[in-house]
Amino acid sequence: MQSLKSNALEPDLSDVQEAGIGGMIKRLSRMIPSYGVVLLTLALIVLFSVLLPQTFPTWTNARLILSNQAVTALLALAVMIPMVAGKIDISVGYGVVLFEILGISLQSQNHLPWPLVIVIVVVLGAVLGVINAMLVELAQIDAFIATLGTGTVVYAVALWYTGGQQVIGTLPPSFFQLGGGSLLGIPLPAIYVLVLSVVMWLALDHTPLGRYLYAVGANPEAARLNGVSTRKYIILAFVASGVITALAGTVLASKLRIGQIGVGLDYLLPALVAAFLGSTTIKPGRVNVWGTIVGIVILAVGISGLQQLGGAFWVEPMFNGLTLLVAIGLAGVAGRKRSAVKRLPPPAVTVPAVNAPVVLSELPSQSGATGQGDTP
Q1: Are residues 279 and 304 located together in one domain of the fold?
Q2: pLDDT score, position 27
Q3: Which of 26, 173, 198, 353 has the most CB atoms less than 10 A away?
């Protein structure tokens, strides 16, 4: 069973060749489905800047947003990778809890250096990804059910490990810099997100690995018949998701400085919202890196602006939930449009008889004055 289909819906500007204002309006109308969320994000920034000129359009607020949303962005990128392969990973919201706690306890209670702790946590993240992949591929369990089950087990392990209590201990100041430091005034967690985004964009959009992952997500049977090892790429997707989740847990541990059993679940819904919303922008109908980042930005801007306007404590979950519903609806519309485009019959081509006379006046001129290309 496929939890998610990954289909591309690129803006088609090939038949919009008119000049002047009419042609420009048509080209813009074709691009709105691809960049509508980006325009909405810019509109929200302008709106809140006008309503809150003293607090919202400031570098301090921007730094706060970049720092606070970095963990959510990392988890959204982690969720995105299995989505490219047509699967979904719910366990990231539970795994980040255990990894955050281990990032604290292995240093404070077991006195391990933090670089070694990061290695241990990353290995455990990869193990979690392998377990998810085995359940999905070998046991043939739906990805949503399988990852929800493993996530619940991981959360139970975290409860057992901590006894339901906070983990507090002495940590080295250098570890705090991972989540609280800055470079050229930019918070380090935001730089982690940028670097990871560029790496994922290059891998998914410019390498055979990315093309195979998208092929598996769009039609696994067709990919298999074309020689693509679907099982291998699905395993790689879940392992990558687990590793990024482990890194996010480490950054979260550095930011919080104490192990909290209930903190990770607060990041699950925003991460899912951003990943789904990302599939509706830049490349509608196709899960993509920069669309996911735009999804994070619009969530961060909307929540920050509403909170500064005096929104109640329930505004954030309400905003996230409504945005998720809208994102899923838009993703479904984009997917149906893509399917409709694929079902269109190819244009009819009239082939003249072999011995038919050729009338020179009916041939297109070589200078292209008729506006038509040569018939292949």
Answers
A1: yes
A2: 63
A3: 26
pTM higher than 0.70, yes or no? yes
CA 1-296-179 angle, to 5 degrees, is 110
Nearest-angstrom CA–CA distance, 41 and 297: 7
pLDDT of residue 2: 45
Q: Please tell me the least confidently modeled range out of 56-65, 251-260, 324-333.
A: 324-333
pLDDT at 345: 58
205 and 105 in a single domain? The answer is: yes
Buried b (16+ CB within 10 A) or exposed e, 126-158: bebbebbbebbbeeebebbebbbebbeebbeeb
Contact indicator for 254, 192 with CB cutoff of 8 Å: no
Which residues constitute the domain of residue 278? 265-342
For residue 213, pLDDT over 90 is answered with yes
Calpha distance 176→193 (Å, rounded): 17
Q: Do 197 and 271 fall within a single domain?
A: no
Q: What is the mean pLDDT of residues 219-224?
A: 88
User: Phi and psi for 167 in degrees, rounded to 5?
Assistant: -105, 115
Based on the fold, state whether residues 251 and 140 are members of the same structural domain.
yes
Helix-helix angle 289-308:59-68, to 10 degrees:
120
